Amino acid sequence: MDVKELVRRAKRSLSLVKQVSPVAAFGLGVLPIGEEAGIRIVARASGASARTLPFLLRLFGPETRFELVPDDRLREALGRVYLAEDQGVNFPTFADGDFLEREETFAILCREKVERLSIQGWELPENRLAFFHLALEGDRACPDTPSPEPEFQGGPLEFPFRLDRDPPEVYSLNVLPQEVRAFLRFDYCYLGGDFRQGIVAGGVRGLPVLLHPTEIQLAHVAPDGTLSIHLYDHIEEVRPGDTGTWAVRYWYLDLGQRQHRTLELHLRAYRVVPRDQVRLVPGPAPWSAEDLRCFLQMGSAYTRAHIAGSTKSR
């Protein structure tokens, strides 16, 4: 059954589709596509773990027939049925990999995770400008299904400022917009099904700023420049000039498969300076040898770890 047919049948069975929340459909890997003689027909991700079957029977009842569909095909169909363009779902997360064994998990899987920040907003004086340079390394492992070899997806490689100059330099701008309160450089490298590496950069007009949905966020800047970073289940506070590294680990369910996510956030630089002391420079920021070394080292460390893990499992 191709994606077009899955979507057609699901849209003809909207009363069944509406009984399943988008996050439950994506998490458990299911899409209702019809009913025959009182038997519900549900497309199910072919890679879904058998450990999710008790949840499916609670969701649809015993009078259900499941038709296995390749994971990528089902994911695309789910997106067309449940989500608007550029919309996603925020999976609930768990502290350990045994969450499918617990009774209360079923209700949790049916609700999107709502991240509640204990503090958020911008209180830095308007005559001050902040610069954030952060890097995030992420890995994702699936104990239920062998991980495919990652495919590299390169992202943009331009960044907006240099802090190793005096005064700090901001590039590709002739005028510093008053509504821009800070500049962000965010280097990222993700493994787990794919290999993505690049740089997200630009001006910041307010907080919070989402770095990884929704577990890592720049949440608040106090009048004295103290930055509050939301890290999964707690807040870390840093001051201008500080650096630091923090690790976040959690589990979630995607298409009926348990996923173990590891994130490591590096604060490489944080400065607050008077706005009138910033130098604007036309053209893109030049790369230094240190920029290149840090960027390539971030990707290669995770690539080596992935290759080592794959080799051990063979």
What would a concise description of this structure say?
This protein is of the alpha/beta class and 314 residues long. The chain has two domains: 88 residues, GMP Synthetase, Chain A, domain 3, CATH 3.30.300.160; 192 residues, no CATH class. The strands form four sheets. A six-stranded mixed beta sheet has the order 6-10-9-5-16-15. Strands 4, 11, 12, 13 and 14 form a five-stranded mixed beta sheet that branches.
Task: Please provide a written account of the structure.
The protein is an alpha/beta fold and 314 residues long. It folds into 2 domains: 88 residues, Type II secretion system, protein E, N-terminal domain (GMP Synthetase, Chain A, domain 3), CATH 3.30.300; 192 residues, no CATH class. Helices cover 22% and strands 37% of the residues. It has 7 helices and 17 strands. The strands form 4 sheets. A 6-stranded mixed β-sheet has the order 6-10-9-5-16-15. Strands 4, 11, 12, 13 and 14 form a 5-stranded mixed β-sheet that branches. It has a 3-stranded mixed β-sheet with strand order 1-2-3. Helix 1 runs parallel beside helix 5. The longest helix is centred in the last third of the chain and has 24 residues. The protein is elongated, with a radius of gyration of 23 Å. The C terminus is likely disordered.
Please tell me what the overall shape is. elongated
Indicate the proportion of strand residues.
Answer: 35-45%
Mean pLDDT: 91
Look at the helices and sheets and give the structural class. alpha/beta
Number of structural domains: 2
Main sheet? 6 strands, mixed
* Total beta-strand segments: 17
Radius of gyration: 23 Å
Give the strand order of the largest sheet, numbering strands 1, 2, ... along the chain: 6-10-9-5-16-15
Topology pattern, helix = H, strand = E: HHHEEHEHHEEEEEEEEEEEEEEH
- Kindly report how far apart the N and C termini lie: 32 Å
The helix content is: 10-25%
